[in-house]
Amino acid sequence: MVGLRLSSCPKGMLNGPCGGALGERCEVDGRMCPLLRRLEVEEAPFEEHPVLREMEKLVEGDTRPRDSAFWRGLELGRALTLEFPISAVRTWEDVHLVVGSVRDVDLLTVPDNPLGYPHFEPTAMALYLKSLGRPVCPHLTGKDRNLTAVASELRTALLFGFEAVLMTTGDWPGLSLPSRPVFDLDSANLIRLARLVFAGILPTGERFEADERPRVLGTINPHYRPALEAKRVLRKLVAGAEALVTQVVASKESLSRLKEVLRSAGGDVPVLVSLLHPLTEELRPALERMGIPAGDEGFEELLEEVKTLDFVSGINLIVFSRSLEGWLSLATDAVKTTKEVFE
Questions:
Q1: What pairing do the DSSP bridges indicate for beta strands 212-213 and 215-220?
Q2: What are the structural domains, with CATH classification, of the chain?
Q3: Which residue has the higher pLDDT, 230 or 28?
Q4: Where would I find the Methylene-tetrahydrofolate reductase C-terminal-like domain in this sequence (predicted)?
């Protein structure tokens, strides 16, 4: 059964296209994504990893989701999450400064080596933030971890009471680092693995006790063709995603495409819109290179537009600054502005 893996995909994905098909071309070799045509002609196919199929046979029921201010905020349509500043933190004291300075958010998310560059291990950082009393959601990707490694981190998230986990494929490290990517699981199978581990099943077939579990989040990309992204979304919902977090949105056009994606997918699922602050002219070319359309709208204008959309359940703030002092100032301003707009 493992032979079903499509060797024509440079990452060996069972399900695709992944988030690295910028402009529908593979970020690895620049060719048209070999899984694109398959998604165009099939109805949201979901090729489940053979180990996960065996795990499913052992599931006796779902574990109760953990109650949290984050999930209550989503249900009310005004959740607010903030990405932890992995590029600005340098010391243990910096971590404490962040925790003590920015409190009025429902969740701190910890990204997993964005753009393929090493920062901090997200589960370890999330665990420390959790020990300091902060609600957390690490990003867990498949680019650097095989199935066993992901399962162990999921069990850690379960044991220590994380509020949520965000499961996504992860960024290709490129040619700048001598790092061999793994990509043992694509995003849909990562989501399914999370639901299975949280149900108390390990890839070895062993069962363990699980009383409460984190919520399982997936991603949604409004910069894909809406009809294709709707199928990718459906696949993640089938796999077990309970909420979706968008890629960075930097234009009203992308919000319109997001609405079209969700309408085509037809699923009723909470959506967090990711907004970047500050959205400066200097950042717009970099966003365009990453396949993110950047309009003329500023941060506050996009916030006001998001507020009018009834399908949005909250905001995921990403604050850009390489200095901690700058990040703290910008994050405080972004959180305050967001709260004011949504009250």
A1: unpaired
A2: 2-342 (3.20.20.220)
A3: 230
A4: 7-31
